[in-house]
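Changelog-linked ticket: glutathione example.
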Amino acid sequence: MLTLYYHPLATYCWKALIALYENGTDFEKRVIDLADATHRAELTALWPLCKFPVLRDADRVVAESSIIVEYLDRHRPGPRALVPHDADAALDVRLWDRLFDNYVQTPVQEIVFDRLRNANGDLRRAHATLATAYELAEKQLATSRWMVGDEFSLADCAAAPALFYAVTLHAFPAHCTRLSAYFERLVERSSVRRTLEEARPYFKNYPFESAIAARFR
Ligand SMILES: N[C@@H](CCC(=O)N[C@@H](CS)C(=O)NCC(=O)O)C(=O)O
């Protein structure tokens, strides 16, 4: 049996959860509260960097959200591959996964941590990175129903949490109509809806909770 070590509010954990729900994989959940020293010790014993999600499959420990999705695809495949078998299409999917992690999640975390620490830092660069990432996504979506082509993939597993939190900090510009429509498709996807539903009780702990659209709160 697989066990996912995660927290329902944690953005990178959503990527793994969405993939597990997409694949219909049976797994056990182990909620880790990083404020609890015993929980931290449990996670650190598995993965010394003490970051989640972490997936345990018997004595194999799989860390890093993207690697977890790839591992599931390989060892517990669902009805559709989340990383395409075609090598070039797989490169595109991995590119968009990296793009959402590095250029959406990273500035989002910078803005959120700034608020949590009351640091009042200069966040212009973080906002500029989000703006550039939105423009790139808008362009990509001209020829794509999901982030890469017509099939839901790892790229969409990454996009859902990244965009969900990003839009609470930096609105989509009015001209990004394809990105807005894509976001609506994403949050209506049952794997994503289920993940959001499970996070809902914890949204009160998010410092920009009031910016979460009323329909999710
Ligand atoms: N690159 C990692 C990032 C994981 C990550 O930063 N997870 C956050 C939660 S969303 C975390 O563990 N934060 C705890 C900490 O940094 O102490 C991945 O993709 O899994």
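Closing comment: Example verified and attached. Residues 10-13, 34, 50-53, 64-66 surround glutathione (CB under 6 Å). Helices lie at 11-23, 37-46, 65-75, 87-116, 124-140, 154-166, 177-188, 190-199.
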